[in-house]
Amino acid sequence: MNLSIRPAFADARTLKIGVVSPQTGPMAAFAEPTGFVIERILEGTGGFIENNGIRYPLEIIERDTQSNPNRAAEVTQELILSEGVDVILCYGGPENANPASDQCELNGVPCLSSDVPIEPWFFGRNGDPAKGFDYTYCAFFDVKTYAGAMLAFMDKIAPGGTVGGLWPNDADGVVLSQAFTEGFGAAGYTIVDPGRFDLPTSSFSTQIAKFRDSNVDIVQGIMPPPDFTLFWTQCAQQGFQPKAMIAGKSSEYPASVEPLGEKAVGVSVPIWWTPDFPYVSSIDGTTALETARRYESETGRQWTAGIGSRHAMLEVLVDTLRRAENLDDPESVSAALGATKLETICGSIDFSTGPVPNSAKLGLVSIQWVKSSEGYAFPYDMAVVENSFHPAVPVAREPFPIPYG
Fold first, then answer.
1. Which tens digit of pLDDT belongs to each residue from 108-118?
2. If we measure between CA atoms, which residue out of 231, 232, 243, 239 comes closest to residue 189?
3. pTM reported for the whole predicted model
4. Are residues 318 and 312 in contact, defined by beta-carbon separation less than 8 angstroms?
């Protein structure tokens, strides 16, 4: 998909932006709002970037990774070598963002990643904290904030209880299993870890049996949406009923929990954006709530957290291109990207705040899925239940154990 608006008064070359996007495959829920956000940004900028008194037409080219790491590397190469893009944006977990970022680093193209935890993005690419990267950046949450948000929620549901880890054998699973085992254990929780496992899988019976026999109170998982749907469905079938289910990488998205129906109620996850966030677009001043409702009215689909992070990613892009000293020099664009300090619809993005070089960390709140209030167009919605790691966002209700029966 190529989206652009070309003003008649353009007097400079076109700036071409590549978006490496999991439009199909198991991570497709991440890409659902991307086209909508791209159109809003082009509308808000008039389709051009003004830099040093020159107006540059803006063209945004989206390519599908099919949720496949090899394909992510291939389409990034195509965007760089065939399309001649100036900047790459990528998102959707390490499976998509890491290979795209690696190609950009190799080819000297500025790149911004989102919707991928910072440490799996950085260390999954063999990043050296003493050096960082030259061209690639990530703006999302870090593992410490993610674990802290979960602990704040867990302490209100089953303090000092038993946590079952559903951590696969991928970049997210390996990094988070180590961090969560240490962090949850130090906080007084007993950890039950059945070990790493490959995805996709046809059965979670082994893990479920281990959790049930160990009287697990809380399950924390990090899996693509189809795998979580299978796990949670099999939990119901096999009579395993934990007090809490924290489903990262999947329950942030309405399309992912829709197949669960009422079994979605109570499922929790730390999240980086909701319509309740008290921030506005740096492009046109639109609020988070206004943006979410416009998305719903124009697409007929429910809001998703990806609206916020994708919007913020494009806000940073626009701000970077406006500030760069020389848009024809990738090093100059990369330096401007790394110097970003911007208030976005998702909150502050500041690359001096990251736990490692080249990263900006976002705040998080914990949500739980609830039945929607009367008059809302969708049967279930996310309610903010804990905000210790993002106190500017209001809490809608207290955390509650998953209701069964």
1. 999 999 999 99
2. 243
3. 0.92
4. no
